[in-house]
What does this fold into?
Amino acid sequence: MTASSFRTRILILVVGAVVLPLTMLGVWLARSAQRAATTLVATQLDSLVARGVGSVTVTWSNASSDVRLLAENAPVAAAMSAASPPASPPPYVDEALATMPTITNVVFLDHTGAVRWLVNDDMSLSANGHAVPAAGFIMRAAVPGVGGAKPVGEVQARVSAAALLPPEVTSGPAQALIAVYDRAAHTWAGSVSMPAALLEKDHFAWNGEHWLVARRSMQDPALMVVAAAPLDPVARPFARSANVGIAALAVVSLGVVLLAAVGARRLTSPLGELAVAADAVARGDFGLALSPRGPSEVARVGQAFNAMRANVREMMAERSRRESLAALGELSATIAHQVRTPLTAIKIDLQRVEELVGGESVDLIGHALAATQRIEDAVGASLSMARTGSARFEPIEVTELLRESAVAATPRASVRNVTIELAEVPHGLIVHGDRPALIQALTNVVINAVDAARQTVRMAARSAETTTIDIIDDGPGISPANLLRVGEPFFSTKVGGTGLGLTIARRILDAHRGRLVVSSDDSNGTRVRLELPA
It folds into this structure.
């Protein structure tokens, strides 16, 4: 490889690793300036609305206490209870109202709902003698009788929406405004210097500027606090900063390219040796070591390469050891799965022994012992295949394989109310293989079919060029995507499934020079075919 090609590659690397990211950073700065300004203004508006809501909440609570004070006092109770009530409220009312700036007017009603007294001049009487308040929030409190007797009337006080938002809470972003929308009266209170319909949007354009809006609704009182502020005065400083950053990035990019062009010439010779050594490592030759020379940075690269070469060699050895451990772990998982299925049958049978102590107990215990024997056979076969990589072959009647696997799966089928049907097998149909291993493989397939079936699992066998055993269920089938993964270790769609049943069955069939084929219609059940040499 020539020195010029090294230089070209280094320059391409610099452009790809430095210049392009810096360019993308510049684009990001330009775009993020607007987002940063938007975020800042939105945060300030949220804070302004939160202060407004807090002020309204406190003021409303104070006003509620004031209204109860107007209603629940001795002078008002005595005057309202009198047989001939006075024409005006007691002086206590005027004195109390002088200390209640949020209450603009008050009306006192007797127990019939008729107006007894009007305080302030923005309430009027309707034709039937009832008070008609101006727009605002009406707070009510009952007037108890003398000595806490039955209420003798009611106080209705109007709290102005504008009074709920004092000036000290309205400071916010530049040119910001805050207002209150009275949801009961459908009116606005506050410094609304623009068309009020604009405040119903989340953002809008007005007077050549973009505005953001924040709002929060309250239930008691029925208010909505709204704040708005222009975005452009905040966005302009962000945009200027972004432009300065982009210019600086352009200067840095140009400088990096120039420095890379100068430095590449000094690096080409030592890097050529490094490339040769790297090719040797890629071929698996870890014996070629570098003699670090050239600029100090390149020398350190050579030293680092030598250290890396030693580390890679150690990592390859470590990887080999880990693969051996992984194989051992998979074998352990296989044995655990082999053991678990018969144990399930043992558990079910023994539970039935508890329930059916009597004549059936002997048969059930016999089933349990048979399941225990299958455990021993399965574990022994698995360990034998793990040690030797092959199975112990002997002639086996297919009918016997089908019957024993059906018996092993019967407890599971009984629990799920599934029937296992054995079709007639041609007389004298024989396969050669390891009996426990083939029984285990077939049992795994049958149990999977029982778990998937709605009512029936059918087992059939025939012989031609190969001996074929079919296990067919009437379940919902397997989707095309899952069908591609059937047989992968630890892949299962069953709740609590290990994903090892078909994996084990497939490996057993491979050891017998056979194969396992799964076909399914995703709505009409699944067929698992076991093919063995005739």
